[in-house]
From TrEMBL:
<dbReference type="GO" id="GO:0016758">
    <property type="term" value="F:hexosyltransferase activity"/>
</dbReference>
<protein>
    <submittedName>
        <fullName>Putative glycosyl transferase family 2 protein</fullName>
    </submittedName>
</protein>
<dbReference type="InterPro" id="IPR029044">
    <property type="entry name" value="Nucleotide-diphossugar_trans"/>
</dbReference>
<feature type="domain" description="Glycosyltransferase 2-like">
    <location>
        <begin position="2"/>
        <end position="138"/>
    </location>
</feature>
<keyword id="KW-0808">Transferase</keyword>
<dbReference type="InterPro" id="IPR001173">
    <property type="entry name" value="Glyco_trans_2-like"/>
</dbReference>
<dbReference type="Pfam" id="PF00535">
    <property type="entry name" value="Glycos_transf_2"/>
</dbReference>
Length: 304
């Protein structure tokens, strides 16, 4: 067993050593001091020897067959390097309509194509549900420390490198939620941190850096603020799409604010970043884009 002691003060290291001596299990105990989650995960990944490594949080509960099913999937699908599972929020009292919508969306991201297409909306897989090929994750840099959520940054990096991520269509983990959950309480997981790392990778996406002009659907201040990282990296929008008559006709960063019909009449079609995250807007925007002949992933991306 490999254990990484991330600066614990509750006697965990002594308990692990005692357990190893009593059980006869060989224990590798790493004690780097307080290094943070991402570095601790990376140290554990480097010290492990198994071909597959699974992730799970201490207060979650997985189905007994979870690991066997994920290992069997990786055995049978050599082109997939990370496999997640669907998850269920517990306890029931922690659920709310917004969280239910998020989980329905996340649990619906199953294939490598869906996960890659949805990666800029939110994190399409729950980190504690994942199993990966250790050598592949290490070959692409593993977990990195920074002012971003370490799992989301890893998924972005892997997808940009062409690594395939998939998800089993089965709930195999109860994902415990509370106000003190790491992903809610840690500043690395704040909305601004997601926006920064998303913009960093989006600005390097070949669909954005190519010759095709880019248009942004959403001319509100909140949308523009979330995409600040794009403008800082030299991305420019040729037009801003909005349905608000008070905004249409104005100019933002030198580009006009236009109605959605502009997208139908413009040839060739620009690549669209649909960045309106308010409830219900996504479905309406996707329906309009589909009616105008725009294909998801090929002609537009949804940006959370």
């Amino acid at each position: 067993m490999v254990a990484v002691d991330d600066g614990s003060i509750d006697g965990s290291a002594a308990l692990i050593e005692q357990w190893g001596a009593q059980s006869g299990v060989a224990v590798t105990l790493l004690q780097p001091g307080r290094v943070g989650l991402a570095t601790a995960l990376q140290l554990g990944l480097e010290a492990a020897r198994g071909a597959y490594v699974a992730r799970m949080d201490g207060d979650d509960v997985m189905a007994p067959q979870r690991l066997a099913k994920q290992a069997a999937f990786l055995d049978a699908n050599s082109h997939i390097d990370v496999v997640a599972t669907q998850a269920r929020i517990v306890p029931e009292a922690a659920r709310n309509p917004g969280l239910d919508r998020y989980m329905a969306w996340q649990n619906g991201c199953l294939t490598p194509e869906q996960i890659a297409r949805e990666i800029y909306w939110e994190s399409p897989i729950a980190h504690p549900t994942t199993m990966c090929r250790r050598r592949v994750v290490l070959a692409h840099g593993g977990y990195r420390e920074g002012d971003f959520p370490e799992d989301y940054e890893l998924w972005l990096r892997l997808i940009h490198a062409g690594v395939k991520l998939a998800k089993l269509p089965e709930v195999l983990l109860d994902w415990r939620d509370s106000p003190t959950r790491f992903s809610r309480a840690d500043p690395h997981c704040a909305r601004a941190a997601f926006d920064r790392v998303r913009a960093d990778y989006l600005a390097r996406d070949a669909r954005i850096t190519g010759a095709r002009p880019v248009a942004v659907w959403g001319a509100g201040r909140r949308t523009r603020r979330r995409l600040d990282g794009l403008w800082a990296r030299g991305v420019a929008s040729v037009a801003w799409i909005d349905i608000d008559a008070r905004k249409i006709g104005n100019r933002i960063q030198g580009a006009p604010v236009v109605a959605p019909e502009w997208l139908r009449d413009t040839a060739p079609h620009p690549f669209v970043l649909a960045a309106v995250a308010s409830h219900g807007a996504r479905e309406l925007i996707e329906a309009d884009l589909s009616d105008m002949g725009y294909q998801p992933g090929e002609d537009y991306l949804m940006v959370g």
